[in-house]
Amino acid sequence: MVTDALTPLxxxxxxxxxxxxxxxxxxxxxQFGGRRAFCGRVRxxxxxxxxxxxxxxxxxxxxxxxxxxxxxxxxxxxxxxxxIAASAVENGWAGLVVNGAVRDSAALAELPIxxxxxxTNPRKSAKDGRGAVDVPVGFGGVTFFPGDVLHADDDGxxxxxxx
Length: 163
Description:
Elements: H1 11-18, E1 23-25, E2 30-31, E3 38-46, H2 52-57, E4 66-70, H3 82-90, E5 95-102, H4 105-108, E6 114-120, E7 132-133, E8 137-139, E9 142-144, E10 149-153, E11 156-160
Parallel strand pairs: 3-4, 4-5, 5-6
Antiparallel strand pairs: 1-11, 2-6, 3-7, 3-10, 8-9, 10-11
């Protein structure tokens, strides 16, 4: 999946411009990455307390994409930490939106990548690779489709449909 370089735009401005055509995620995420505003084409993973697929995908070229991880809202285990996020930076990912927990939050704040998640938990997840990649995932009242354009900042997460 090759992407064009995208510039993050304020989510409130996008809502003003697009109105109901813009999908707005209602989930109240916390910021963890060193970049508070980020955007990119969506890639997705659906998994539950198992970050094997997350680790594997973030080791591949991200080409400016944002990985949306639907962990079912579980904060029982972390779906990413500093090592996996550093791999994402090295491979050109713009950010992660995790419907679940992260760990190593102090280290994540130092990385030049956007990371939003529900919260933190120091507990590691399973590494079995259970789940699915590039499937539609839904939370916060919206469905995230691979190829959508996601913008995120301190005000929230919004989606434009794929071209």
